[in-house]
Task: structure prediction
Amino acid sequence: MMKKLKSWPVWMLMGLLVVALLTVGTTRDSGPLTQSDRIDAITKRIACPTCDGESVFVSRATAAESIRNQVARDVAAGTMSDNQIIGSIADTFQGKILLVPRATGVDSLVWILPIAVLVCAVAGLFVAFRRWKRNNSGDATAEDIALVKRLLGEDPTDEENV
Result:
């Protein structure tokens, strides 16, 4: 029992460490980007309106070239952030060209709902297994032994094998 108590703080510490590292890793700024890097990053997040499943970065369609040129003009002007540039293009196409859903409003459910379902499912399984383990004493009753013997074709009244 003492060994189990000692392992819980270690697991909790490891879990907190993983969450902290993931948070730092996802929010860390990699430094100033060049205009070309910004244009590439933005066009990778926008789908080509005339192509099927391609980003503006990859596509060579006329519509994609036009969007790339607009992004380049907006980046060169330096008056908008990357998200503002993507937002203005998405507003032009009614948001149907975003490869990555917005993190606000109903679009945020695309990101949050699967994670919430996974967490609830894991928690539900944890509770169910704990309850099952607590209710399962592990001791076979005489009725259980007789049932097993009957199913195996042995004589249930034979007390020698019990």
